[in-house]
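Design request, tokens follow.
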């Protein structure tokens, strides 16, 4: 046990044979691939704790036992995704160990009634972050090469679809939301969308592709992924929320451009969404 570190080397060694042989890579391609899968390993691992918090909120809000069970399963799935990503790190010849970043608390929204507090997090996690994850991972599966790696990624994708769908179907189930609740959730959307964009841009590298061989092992164009992020917000997330009467104020839109440009100019290194 080592606080502050995520060490999945034992689990990775057990699972790595299932990943099979990977294509020959240059040292630079291998370095990028290991960094990408290690970053993803960390992100998958820490996203499990988000569902841990959601479970408590779902109990407080009186969600059905079926939905509570789903949330608990989602937490386990994220932990499994982390182990699967670790196995790819090992198959690439890397070490499946990494420092854990500082873990900001998942907001409890104690200023709101239990259902509203839950809905803020469900919208933020499922309808926003997990919906973006579905788009990004689906795009990656179109480029991935080795069949075993494709199989692994498609398994993760199927789970992420379930995580996103949980949010959208909960909104369907609760429709129509009371107008005052709708308004307060709409106001919260601006915060949630801004956080989503900042978080994703931090993890999607501001660079183009590294060639077909790298894409075959999951190192895709960060710039294309950033474009897909904004396309998903515009064509899937905002229309989906609008169908439930949830709309951010226009001021959010004006911040979208600068946020994109700033990060595109910049700084960032590997990693992927949950
Ligand atoms: Fe997920
Ligand atoms: Fe995941």
């Amino acid at each position: 046990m080592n606080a502050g570190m995520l060490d999945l080397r034992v689990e990775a060694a057990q699972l790595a044979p299932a990943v099979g042989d990977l294509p020959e890579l240059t040292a630079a391609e291998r370095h990028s691939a290991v960094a990408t899968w290690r970053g993803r390993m960390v992100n998958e691992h820490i996203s499990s704790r988000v569902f841990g918090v959601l479970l408590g909120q779902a109990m407080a809000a009186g969600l059905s036992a079926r939905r509570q069970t789903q949330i608990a399963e989602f937490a386990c799935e994220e932990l499994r995704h982390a182990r699967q990503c670790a196995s790819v790190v090992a198959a690439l010849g890397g070490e499946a160990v990494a420092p854990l970043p500082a873990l900001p608390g998942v907001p409890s929204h104690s200023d709101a009634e239990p259902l509203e507090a839950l809905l803020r997090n469900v919208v933020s996690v499922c309808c926003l972050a997990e919906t973006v994850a579905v788009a990004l991972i689906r795009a990656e599966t179109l480029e991935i090469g080795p069949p075993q790696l494709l199989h692994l990624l498609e398994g993760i994708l199927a789970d992420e679809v379930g995580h996103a769908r949980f949010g959208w179907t909960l909104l369907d189930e609760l429709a129509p939301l009371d107008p005052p609740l709708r308004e307060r959730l709409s106001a919260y959307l601006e915060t949630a969308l801004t956080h989503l964009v900042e978080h994703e841009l931090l993890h999607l590298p501001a660079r183009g592709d590294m060639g077909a061989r790298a894409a075959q092992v999951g190192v895709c164009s960060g710039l294309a992924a950033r474009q897909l992020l904004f396309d998903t917000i515009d064509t899937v997330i905002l229309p989906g929320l609008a169908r439930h009467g949830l709309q951010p104020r226009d001021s959010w839109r004006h911040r979208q451009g600068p946020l994109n440009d700033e990060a595109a100019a910049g700084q960032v290194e590997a990693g992927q969404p949950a």
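Comment from the thread starter after seeing the answer: thanks! The two ends are 24 Å apart (CA to CA).
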